[in-house]
Specification:
Length: 488
């Protein structure tokens, strides 16, 4: 178990309490000793990191090979217009799992820790745990190791050898953050280890083992890929011939009608300029696709295990990404922007007895819906602090009446409001973009100044947050000193 990082507390105390809970599971809820356990579905939530719409069911890239996500989508509903609450890891995940938006919590960025600022009992894993679910988690669920072990029954965090552990190594190089393993172009990939040793395979295997247990569970499997670095085994690169790689659709001067605040997020003179100058655009698109296919294979491990388990027909499956990813659209790479490719996420639901096999929904929804929807499907009261709206009506009927737009916030003061027809972006300095998603799905033409669309814009602005919490203090990076191995 040397490669596994699990706190002693988690392994010994929580596992002990879980055993006792397991013994009592048929009659008692741990922590609520007098309430009988309600029968009902289990929940498997799978979170992919930095996965955009380049997956089979969403067809964001014509060459993406994701047979397992195709299989998952064939069993339930795929949302074709689902968006994160924030287009970077920490605020997105904190919002999704706490049920509160960045504008409420003040958690807007990766350098802030949610753990001091979200009270116990609020996060979904802890809330459901108090309502009779065994709360189980593996891999990247919150931002890296931001776990409160006492809010889980069991949590497993395998060490990711491919991710940097010191603040210094996290500085983006000329090609962006770890777009190449060592910060500069080398071989297309360097991973030589057996797939079973890689963190995501370990997390999937751990979750697969949990499926052998009886009782009701809320289990989260957090996959690191396709987050950079894109070192995945050769067989995933072999799925994509470099010379035949199709680049994303772009036009020249796409940024000409974007206000300076948007251009500052795009950083066209940064990674994009360096990658294209070095002739590496196709190479990196291929690497991203390879990492997507690798993540897809881990989803396959989980589905195989679920299908063999006793929970096969009584488990809600939710597959979601924490935000999207640009690969050169708008001369931008990575996340941290308010355009479609940075905010749109895979969002696939299998809810037994509710979703129809192979159904698709085009309404705009956001990740704040996860908390209330899971509570509703699980027969648990939605707690008052939760800000999202349940999408259960859409799960049952993709054409159900839906008026709630998706709302995405990036840092403080920058927001996007999305409907099935429009994307309205307003930056902190008041500048705007408006895109007609029906006519212009690539968001090439900013029509924010069009007089005939003034009413559309006015209507969309009514969904912007009225108040925005002061950002909580950022975590001060530890002084540069040699840490004990595995202590970071
Ligand atoms: Ca444009």
């Amino acid at each position: 178990m040397k490669t596994f990082l699990i706190t002693k507390y988690t392994r010994q105390v929580r596992f002990g309490s879980l055993l006792i809970a397991g013994i009592l599971a048929t009659c008692l809820i741990p922590g609520l000793a007098s309430t009988p356990i309600q029968p009902g579905p289990n929940i498997l939530l799978i979170i992919a990191d930095d996965m955009n719409d380049w997956i089979g069911p969403m067809a964001g890239h014509p060459q993406a090979k994701t047979p397992n996500l195709d299989r998952l989508a064939s069993r339930g509903m795929t949302f074709l217009n689902a968006h994160c609450a924030a287009p970077i890891c920490n605020p997105s995940r904190t919002a999704m799992l706490s049920g509160q938006r960045p504008t409420t919590t003040g958690i807007y960025n990766n350098q802030q820790s949610w753990m001091k600022h979200i009270p116990a009992g609020r996060c979904l894993n802890d809330y459901l745990r108090q309502h009779g679910f065994a709360s189980l988690g593996a891999g990247k669920i919150y931002h890296y190791r931001n776990y409160k072990p006492e809010e889980w029954d069991e949590v497993f965090y395998p060490r990711d050898d491919t991710l940097p552990n010191s603040v210094a190594e996290r500085t983006p190089g000329p090609f962006g953050y770890r777009m190449f393993t060592e910060g500069k172009p080398e071989a297309a990939y360097q991973e030589q280890r057996e797939e079973e040793l890689l963190v995501d395979a370990q997390s999937a295997a751990w979750c697969a083992r949990q499926l052998e247990r009886p009782g009701r569970f809320f289990m989260v499997c957090g996959l690191h890929r396709p987050h950079t670095p894109w070192d995945v085994p050769k067989k995933y690169f072999d799925l994509y011939a470099l010379e035949s790689i199709k680049l994303p659709l772009v036009i020249s001067n796409d940024l000409a009608d974007v206000p300076p605040a948007g251009i500052a997020f795009a950083q066209p003179k940064g990674a994009h300029a360096n990658i294209t100058k070095a002739g590496l655009w196709k190479d990196r698109v291929r690497a991203y696709l390879a990492a997507v296919s690798f993540a897809d294979a881990q989803v396959g491990r989980l589905l195989d295990a679920l299908d063999k388990s006793a929970h096969r027909d009584n488990t809600i499956i939710v597959f979601v990404g924490d935000h999207g990813w640009h690969l050169g659209e708008k001369e931008h790479w990575a996340k941290s922007a308010l355009w479609r490719r940075a905010t749109q996420v895979p969002f696939i639901w299998v809810a037994p007895g509710v979703t129809k096999a192979g159904s698709r929904c085009e309404e705009a929804v956001d990740m704040m819906s996860i908390y209330p929807t899971l509570c509703e499907l699980a027969g648990v009261e939605v707690p008052k602090h939760v800000e999202g709206v349940s999408i259960k009506p859409l799960l049952a009927n993709s054409k159900a009446r839906w008026t709630q737009p998706a709302l995405i916030s990036h840092l403080r003061g920058n927001h996007a409001v999305c409907t099935a027809d429009w994307r309205y972006i307003r930056y902190a300095d008041g500048t705007e973009e408006l895109y007609d998603e029906r006519k212009d799905p690539n968001e090439w033409t900013n029509v924010a100044t069009s007089p005939v669309l003034a009413d559309v814009k006015k209507r969309l602005t009514t969904y912007l947050p009225v108040t925005e919490a002061t950002p909580v203090q950022e975590v001060v990076p530890p002084a540069k000193k040699k840490k004990k191995k595995g202590a970071s």
